[in-house]
C-alpha cells in the first residue's frame, strides 16, 4: 500500500511539474513574441529636421512642405532648422553627430556623396542611416531676362570668346550646382568664373541683382522668377525637358552637346546608430507625407520633382551616387589635393 501511495504521489508531482514548465514556457514564448512585435515607443516629442542650406532654396522649400505633410502621420510636430555653411557640410555634419534617438533628422542632399571626394567634408553617406528619398531635380541654366543671351548657343559662344569672364553663381564650392557648372564647362570646352554662395537662394538673389551672369540650379528654384519675367532659362541639363519650365529645351536639343547629367536629390537620413524600429516609424511617416495630395500639388506648382525610395532603395541610391562622384570628381580636377 505504501509503495502504491508513493507512486501515486510521485505521478501527481510529475504532472504538476510538467504543467508548470509548460506554463512557464508559454509565458516565455509569449513574452518573446511580444518583444519581437513591440513597436518603437516613438516619438514622444517634436522632431527637428536639419536643412543644411539657407532659407529660400529648393532644399528648404522641399523640407518645409514635407515636414508639414509628414507630421500628421508622425503624430508630433516637425521643426525645420537651417544650418548653413560649407556647401552643406556644416548642417550634414551636425545631423550625423546628433543623438541616435530619431529626434534629429537631416535633409540629406546629393552633396553628401560629393563633398567627401573633394576633401571638403569628413562626413560621408556611411555616417547616416537612410530613411527615405523624396525628390530629384536637374540643372536649369538660367540668366536675367534682360541679358544679351537669348539662347544657350549664344551663351556658350560668348563664353568661348571671353574665357573666365562669365560669372556663374553656385550653391557652394563642391555643391551640386558647382559640379553642374563644371560639367557644363568641361563638356562645352569653355571657362567660367565660379562664384560660391551658401545655397541656391542667395545665388539667385545675386543673379537678380546683376552680380553674376547665370546660375545652374533646379527648375523649382527659378520658376517663380522665370514665370514673372525676371529670369530666363536657356536650357535644362537632363535627358528630358522640365515639366516646370514649359518650352525650355534640353541642353542636347539646344546645342547638340551631351554633357554629364549632374542633378540634385533630397532625402531624409538619421545618424547611423539609430535603431531600425525608429527608422521604420520615420520612413513610414515621411513616405506617407510625400504621398499627400497637398504635398504633391505643392511640389508640382513649384516645379519640384518627386522621386520616392524607401530606406533600402535609398541606401542603394546613396552607394551608387558615391561611386559615380568618386570617379567624376577626380576627372573634373576637383578631387582631394
UniProtKB/TrEMBL annotation:
Domain of life: Bacteria
Membrane spanning residue stretches: none
Residues in the signal sequence: 1-22
Record keywords, A-Z: Signal
Pfam families for this protein: TctC (PF03401)
Residue ranges the record marks as coiled coil: none
Entry similarity comment: Belongs to the UPF0065 (bug) family.
Record's protein name: ABC transporter substrate-binding protein
Provenance organism: Paenibacillus solanacearum
Amino acid at each position: 500500500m505504501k509503495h502504491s501511495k508513493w507512486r501515486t504521489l510521485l505521478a501527481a508531482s510529475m504532472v504538476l511539474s510538467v504543467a508548470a514548465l509548460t506554463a512557464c514556457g508559454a509565458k516565455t514564448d509569449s513574452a518573446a513574441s511580444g518583444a519581437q512585435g513591440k513597436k518603437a515607443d516613438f516619438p514622444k516629442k517634436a522632431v527637428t529636421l536639419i536643412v543644411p542650406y539657407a532659407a529660400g532654396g529648393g532644399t528648404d522649400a522641399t523640407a518645409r512642405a514635407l515636414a508639414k505633410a509628414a507630421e500628421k502621420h508622425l503624430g508630433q510636430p516637425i521643426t525645420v532648422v537651417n544650418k548653413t555653411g560649407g556647401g552643406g557640410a556644416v548642417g550634414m555634419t551636425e545631423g550625423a553627430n546628433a543623438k541616435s534617438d530619431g529626434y534629429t533628422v537631416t535633409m540629406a542632399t546629393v552633396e553628401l556623396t560629393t563633398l567627401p571626394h573633394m576633401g571638403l567634408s569628413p562626413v560621408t553617406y556611411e555616417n547616416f542611416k537612410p530613411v527615405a528619398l523624396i525628390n530629384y531635380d536637374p540643372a536649369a541654366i538660367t540668366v536675367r531676362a534682360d541679358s544679351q543671351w537669348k539662347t544657350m548657343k549664344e551663351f556658350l559662344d560668348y563664353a568661348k570668346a571671353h574665357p573666365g569672364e562669365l560669372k556663374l553663381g553656385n550653391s557652394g564650392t563642391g555643391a551640386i550646382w558647382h559640379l553642374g557648372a563644371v560639367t557644363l564647362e568641361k563638356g562645352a570646352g569653355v571657362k567660367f568664373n565660379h562664384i560660391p554662395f551658401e545655397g541656391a537662394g542667395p545665388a539667385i538673389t545675386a543673379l537678380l541683382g546683376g552680380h553674376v551672369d547665370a546660375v545652374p540650379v533646379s527648375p523649382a528654384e527659378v520658376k517663380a522668377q522665370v514665370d514673372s519675367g525676371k529670369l530666363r532659362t536657356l536650357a535644362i541639363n537632363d535627358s528630358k525637358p522640365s515639366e516646370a519650365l514649359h518650352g525650355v529645351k534640353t541642353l542636347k536639343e539646344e546645342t547638340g552637346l551631351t554633357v554629364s547629367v549632374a542633378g540634385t536629390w533630397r532625402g531624409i537620413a538619421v545618424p547611423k546608430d539609430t535603431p531600425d524600429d525608429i527608422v521604420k516609424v520615420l520612413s513610414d511617416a515621411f513616405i506617407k507625407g510625400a504621398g499627400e495630395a497637398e504635398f504633391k500639388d505643392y511640389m508640382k506648382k513649384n516645379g519640384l520633382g518627386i522621386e520616392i525610395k524607401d530606406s533600402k532603395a535609398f541606401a542603394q541610391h546613396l552607394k551608387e551616387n558615391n561611386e559615380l562622384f568618386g570617379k567624376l570628381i577626380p576627372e573634373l580636377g576637383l578631387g582631394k589635393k
